[in-house]
Design a protein that fits this description.
Layout (H helix, E strand, L loop, with lengths): L1 H16 L3 E5 L2 E5 L8 H9 L1 H10 L25 E2 L2 H13 L5 E9 L4 H14 L5 E6 L2 E6 L8 E4 L7 H12 L11 E9 L2 E9 L5 H19 L13 H11 L2 H15 L29 H14 L3 H17 L8 E3 L16 E3 L1
Parallel strand pairs: 7-8
Antiparallel strand pairs: 1-2, 3-6, 4-9, 5-6, 8-9, 10-11
Helix pairs in contact: 5-7, 10-11
Length: about 375
Amino acid sequence: MEHSLNKVVDLLLLARREGVEVLLNEERLQLKVAEGKKIDEKLLAEIRNNKQSIVDYLANNDIKAVNVADSQINIKPFDRQQVVHIPASFSQERLWFVDQLNGSPEYHLTSVWRLKGILNQQALAFALKTVVDHHEVLRTVFYERGGQVYQSVKQKHDWVLEVKDGSQFKTSPGQLHNYIEKITRLPFDLAKDFPVRALLLRLDEEQHIFAVTLHHIASDAWSTGIIIKEVAELYHAHIQGNTASLPTLPLQFADFALWQRNYLKGDVLKRKTDYWKNKLEGHEPLLLPADNRPAVKSNRGATDIFKLDKATAGKLNELAQQKGVSLYMLLLSIFKVLLYRYSGQSDITVGTSIASRQQKDLEGLIGFFVNTLA
């Protein structure tokens, strides 16, 4: 099941990159392309070979053609004058609940850069503030009312870049590391604080440490790429004296959250919940011989980063192409074989993160969209 599902997701993402829209229209697969554009033959063959799996996936996720009666899947901006309390999305509500229990530093998304050369501090501050003003979710706070979590958007222009003198750390890398780790783990008050903060630490005229921390409740890995791209564009435009602006967003994250709450309820929510309950029924926890977990849960863990040499990476890519799968699917299969070797279990469930941005208007939006499939 998992292999088939990943294959379908890969094909749909590939089709989208190629400008091909794959839709379900009254249980029939429909492909849409721009006028005059031809579909790549290899892609078309892959879609044909996996037709039934694609139909099943689209049906289970309610991804259908626009002319199907269930047009609720199309997200549209809501009238801000008509909605007094904007609900948090399901994912935001989950993180809010975790934060209320014990705080949530493990859900801080931190990026730290060492900037070398002459830095235009004013341009950087302008670029960051413009991005925060542009995306409402970066100005969103949360509150509870009657057992339900809601979100409220702060006014524009209030966010500021924090700038500090860090000259004392110039010759003390250990102290610098400890300081950055400390400030990036400072808790967010989700009821009051912007879910993004940035610190510019000036070591000297041509060396700066730039640390950005976002709470996962307002962002994900896809969003990080958007932030970097928009900040870079605005920074360069500002220092060159050009008019710096960002295109109007067709949607904001609050539009998605309200749509999700209105759509995923009643029979639709029950059908989706029942689908995953049935798929995951009977799956056993993974039993690894060295998995000695402490009696009291903690957030202590480790990350092991390694690189594959060019020759090995090339052979893996070649094998993936021969088997008609993505490199990710091949590596996932290798990982599951490894888990089987250590556990002796053949039915292994692995969580897979997906972008979960089915509508094109969501692709340029910052927010917590990422979801996990099994």
